[in-house]
Amino acid sequence: REWLWQPWQTAALDPELYAALQTADLIMAHNARFDQAIWEYVGVDYGLPLIGINAWYCTSAQARVNALPASLDDATRCLNTAHRKNRTGMALIRKYCIPDKFGNFNRDASGLTELGKYCTGDVRATVDLVKATRRLTPQEHADWLINERINDRGIGIDIPLAQAGAAYAEAAKAETKTELRAITDGALYSPSQHAKFPQWVLQHAPQLEEYMVRYDDGEKKLSLDREHLTNILDQADADEIKMPDYVYNALACKLESSGSAVAKFKKMVDMADQEARVRGSFLYFGASTGRYTSRGLQLHNFKRDCLSVADTEVQRRMMLQGHKLAGAVLQKLGKMLRPTLVPAPDKVFVIGDWSGIESRGLPYLANTNLARVKLDAFRQYDTDPDHNRDNYQIAAADAGVADRQVGKVIELSMGFGGANGAFNAMAKNYGVRLPEAVVSRIVENWRRNNAWAVTFWNDLEKAARTAVRNPGLSTSAGRITYQFDPTLMKGSLLCWLPGDTIITYPNARVESDGSITAIKANWKPKADDPQWPRYTLWRGLLAENVTQGFCAALLRDLIRRVDNVALHCHDELVVEVCVTDAQLTRDLLKKEMEMPPLWAQGLPLRAEPHILTRYGKP
Question: How far is 337 from 330, CA to CA, in rounded Å?
């Protein structure tokens, strides 16, 4: 049944609606925490019945576990449902749901009637979404609730440091603009002139064109993003590229200004509440593989390379005293973002992350004798008191090289079907430059010594293709199972991982060339395009998806077992505890992180948690 309650006409709820709310097992809403807040902080004035926290159910989370866009508008558009979200709703909300400067609301009767129609349309669109997609399992719903409790707990902010960071970043950006104008004789006035900057570089150093090229949907374009800039300047420093000094200095200015420290420090200050905490930072199943993502502060985008706690304290004192910072100011500030997150007074962070978790997860999922040999190498490392061969050194040895840095590039680029191109792209990020013949030999050696991985990639693609072509048939590759459900979202490929995680590929099909495609949630079509963009499920992507999904499931399982979680980031968990409990918490966290769940028995796990007074590294 459908009710439309208009409290400005009658304060009392329909008795049947009141009874339904009191007895309902679940109360569904899109972005349910917003509705919950309105219900608890405003609805109480209207005598609305109390709803237990565990009864709230988010249909945006349901959309995300089905690999659909999180917004109701995009999700219903993607599904082409009978009812859609009314895009005029935001204008109605601004006009009738936000008080004026005197605290008065607009009570225009005709406008409120339109607002009621908008609300009714939203509910109907939400119902269509719920009916068209797979419901959250009880465990998924419980995990969503756990994540919301973490969001409610919030993350502490060092407000003085964040305020100083924002001020220093603003000043540094202004100085960089002034310097750039001087270097280029006024031709460029801002590092953010993304279209004009490459043209200026071509005019003064045409030999750099090949180092600025990128391809967007097959179209050649020039780019001076952070990756291209770093590569050009690194090669110039190594005398592999020649250019005029003023061009080098202009590029250095652009690289210096490419950080997002200004916006992030300011956002910390703006979002912090009276307790100097930012809440609501994490999105459950933000990625279709089951990974959490971050919002607001965008913690997952903070530099992993950060200053130590000791160095941060030194820089903080200098900044609060107004001293000038030495070196590349914006880059240094970017390294201070993580340490600006702090525990409450008299508390500390206990921070743990898994060692090489994806490098262990991939062979575990492959589940062959050769893959188990790879896992044995990790077990040997874990029990070696000297820790002489970590996962990067193991990867280097597999490729016939001794350089750990090269091993790091190999580990991050080879596991999911990557070859020369993937190696070279990753190598740029770590300052590794090798001749193409050497790269080819590394790729060949790694694949030969990790034949289990190549076999697993191929088996995943074969199993997925077979499942799509045979609806209802379960097909397997290693520990992974695929099944095609023709009744779900015009036919969806479901991928089951250990731990009952499900990765969904909506509207999947096998194309005439044998490739598998599905709709991609985070690619939006043009306004006049009725077809949602599609992407290809090739073997490397399937391997990456199942590995990320498996590791995300490990993190969710850990979060269920650990109290006082303050934040998490990919394979890292941060617990906030009293100083007196820190040592015991560290020992318990290590034990929990190194104990695989029942559905991952035999997976070697290693973690070395540490205690810090700021988020980051010792």
Answer: 11
Task: Give the C-alpha separation, 191 to 255, whole Å.
Answer: 8
Residue 218 has a pLDDT of 67
Measure the CA–CA gap between 242 and 205, rounded to whole angstroms: 9
Amino acid at 182: A
Tokens of 286: 């933000």
The pLDDT value recorded for residue 217 is 64
- Distance between CA atoms of 191 and 258, rounded to whole angstroms? 8
Residue 542's contacts (CB-CB under 8 Å, 6 or more residues apart) are 457, 460, 461, 464
Task: Find tokens 């999947």 and name the residue.
Answer: 508
Q: For 253-283, write each residue's pLDDT tens digit.
A: 888 777 676 789 999 999 999 999 999 999 9
| pTM (two decimals) | 0.89
CB burial class (10 A; 0-12, 13-18, 19+) of residue 87?
A: exposed
Angle at which helices 369-383 and 451-469 pack, to 10 degrees? 130
As a whole number, mean pLDDT of residues 232-259 equals 84
- Residue in 394, 495, 406 with CA at minimum distance from that of residue 442: 406
d(CA 204, CA 428): 24
Contact 280, 286 (CB under 8 A): no
Between CA 79 and CA 56 the distance in angstroms is: 24
Give Cα 9 distance to the centre of its chain. 45
**Statement: residue 238 has pLDDT above 80:** no
- Average pLDDT value for residue range 543-556: 97
Q: CA 78 to CA 537: how far, in whole Å? A: 19
Pair 355, 572: CB distance under 8 Å: no
Q: How confident is residue 399, by pLDDT bands cut at 50, 70 and 90?
A: confident
- 484 contact partners, CB below 8 Å, separation of at least 6: 467, 468, 469, 470, 471, 472, 473, 491, 492, 493, 494, 508
| Cβ-count burial 603-615 (b if 16+ within 10 Å, e if not) | bbbbbebebbebb
pLDDT at 67: 97
C-alpha span between 296 and 282 (Å, rounded): 9
| Mean pLDDT within 520-531 | 81
Interatomic CA distance for residues 517 and 499, integer angstroms: 26
Contact 583, 590 (CB under 8 A): no
DSSP string, 143-193: HHHHHHHHHHH-EEE-HHHHHHHHHHHHHHHHHHHHHHHHHTTTS---TT-
